[in-house]
Amino acid sequence: MPHRKLIGLLALAALAFGACGSDSTPDPDPEPYRVFDYKPPPRSHALITSDGTELMGPELKPVIPDRPPPRTLVLEDLIQGVGAVAEAGSEISIQYAGYDYDSGRKLFSSWDQGKPTTLELGSGAMPEGIEEGLLEMQLADRREMVIPPQLTRGQGLPGRVPRGSHLVFVVELLAVG
Questions:
Q1: I want to staple 147 with a disulfide (CB 3.0 to 4.6 A). Which of 29, 76, 98, 167 is the partner?
Q2: b (16+ CB within 10 A) / e for 122-153
């Protein structure tokens, strides 16, 4: 008698598992993989403290392709932000690192200075290509920019940026005010 119950349970289990089989049809609209679901605090447009000492994360490093540099400004969002958008006239705080496209050598870094940089977007505080690349970034965006020499003031900086250099910047938008 115990064997009949066991066989009956096994048969029932086989039916149950058989009904759970796959029809091998892919889900027509799968849910995209999400790394995080960040929502900024209400009424806040900053990811740093008022004194600028809290940095959002470790220094970003660009991926410089092994091919000739582009002739135009190239922008690639590495992480899509949320919330406030940087527009001309906005006061913004950013973390950035700038590299020479040809040598891959780091030239500038706000991380090395230990604090973010704050500027009015469109004021000319940064070269044209960088300011253009900052437009329409959202709070918490991380963006890589490849900037041609005609948009970097082209003159170079003695000991830092050779004349006519293409620059690669990685930028993180920390505040829009």
A1: 167
A2: beeebbebbbbbbeebbbbbbbbbbbbbebbe
Tokens 């892919």 sit on residue: 26
What average pLDDT does range 104-121 have in this prediction?
91
Structure tokens at 155: 């003159």
Distance CA 48, CA 65 (A): 32
- Record the tokens describing residue 120, joined without a space: 């009015």
Half-sphere CA count of 41, side-chain side, radius 13 A: 6
Nearest to 150, CA basis, from 76, 98, 72, 74: 72
pTM, 2 dp? 0.66
Q: What is the DSSP letter of 165?
A: -
Yes or no: say if 61 and 78 are a contact pair by the CB < 8 Å rule: no
